[in-house]
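In response to the reviewer comment on reproducibility (Comment 2.3), we provide here a single inverse folding case reported in full, input and output, so that an independent group could reproduce the run without further information from us. The structure tokens appear first.
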């Protein structure tokens, strides 16, 4: 029995059951046995690969976005904040790509918001020679005051969600118990309120997701952006509108894995509710750009041009890797449309979205 499985079953014995949010939190962030706390899950030998690990152009274009936004804001002293920075590759590429932007690096303090000591260590090694002012923080609340640009790639999908299920007699929370065979399984909690949206009955069996942690973090960031200035770029898989289906998923060794098997040894995520994040930003009084696909954003930021420049000076092997990597980020069949980009800012127009005409 894995140590985390024991922690989970002990908690179920005490409380009767666990919410999906409690389960996700324990699996990902348990101080000793949580998925992100104990090992580096990235790369061919890990469980998954993220955009910055696929192509340097991803981090470079995010860096260019931050530098251009900074220029548009009048070049203030800036806090460049990354949420859930993985191996530090995105920030290293972003800083390298902006090294020649006059005054940008001099105005920067970099803040890495990371809960995993293993990944914070990898980030330190990736960045220690890249910029003189970098600090690591556990929580977004700890970012000191000032104009700030926040970058979050595949961060919001790792935050715990709650799941509700429509039953014959009303809505019940989806919870986790131990079955007679000693395995974890889903069950339903007590039935609460009945819910109808726009006068329409929600079909029995519909799963609805709530994102309390994502909403809290989004409120913290957007409130400070409205007061102190700056912007936020969120890149993730998710939906605009209501999902009304179960998006909870686990990944291990680059393949989907049963969510309740091997707690702490598989990555668990849920799709991001972009409408709810965008609404929080708009309610705070910020400019919100129309949701773009990753392919649209990278193209608008000059990713295609950057690829051509890199290809020009590459050898044959490098050319193949560069072209394949960028195609993976932008093609419809891979990440180009699945991943979406939400940009919000205290200053409009938002860089990359000056031409809104072709965006959804
Ligand atoms: C899927 S990884 C994405 C990594 C990176 N952004 C990339 O694109 O390669 C999720 C990251 O979020 C971090 N993380 C998860 N929950 C967190 C939390 N509540 N606060 C801060 N970081 C968190 C993980 O340790 C990891 O660095």
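Designed residues, in position order:
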């Amino acid at each position: 029995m894995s140590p985390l499985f024991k922690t989970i079953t002990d908690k179920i014995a005490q409380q009767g059951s666990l919410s999906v949010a409690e389960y996700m939190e324990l699996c990902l962030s348990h101080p000793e046995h949580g998925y992100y706390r104990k090992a580096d899950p990235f790369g061919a030998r890990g469980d998954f690969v993220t955009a910055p690990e696929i192509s340097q152009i991803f981090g470079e274009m995010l860096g260019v976005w931050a530098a251009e936004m900074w220029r548009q804001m009048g070049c203030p002293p800036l806090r460049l904040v990354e949420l859930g920075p993985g191996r530090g590759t995105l920030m290293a590429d972003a800083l390298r790509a902006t090294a020649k932007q006059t005054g940008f690096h001099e105005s920067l303090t970099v803040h890495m918001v990371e809960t995993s000591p293993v990944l914070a260590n990898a980030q330190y090694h990736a960045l220690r020679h890249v910029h003189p002012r970098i600090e690591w923080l556990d929580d977004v609340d700890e970012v000191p005051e000032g104009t700030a640009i926040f970058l979050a790639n595949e961060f919001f999908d790792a935050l715990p969600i709650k799941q509700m299920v429509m039953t014959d007699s009303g809505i019940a929370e989806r919870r986790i118990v131990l079955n007679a065979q000693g395995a974890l399984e889903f069950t339903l909690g007590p039935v609460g309120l009945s819910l109808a949206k726009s006068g329409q009955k929600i079909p029995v069996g519909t799963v609805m997701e709530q994102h309390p942690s994502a909403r809290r973090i989004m409120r913290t960031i957007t409130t400070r952006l409205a007061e102190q200035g700056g912007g936020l770029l969120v890149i993730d898989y998710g939906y605009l509108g209501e999902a009304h289906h179960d998006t909870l998923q686990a990944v291990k060794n680059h393949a989907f894995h049963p969510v309740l098997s091997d707690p702490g040894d598989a990555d668990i995520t849920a799709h991001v509710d972009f409408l709810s994040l965008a609404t929080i930003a708009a309610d705070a009084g910020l400019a919100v750009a129309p949701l773009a696909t990753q392919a649209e954003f990278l193209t608008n930021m000059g990713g295609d041009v950057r690829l051509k420049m890199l290809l020009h000076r590459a050898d044959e092997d490098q050319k193949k890797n560069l072209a394949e990597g960028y195609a993976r980020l932008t093609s419809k069949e891979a990440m180009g449309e699945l991943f979406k980009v939400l940009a919000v800012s205290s200053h409009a127009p938002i860089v990359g979205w000056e031409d809104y005409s072709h965006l959804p």
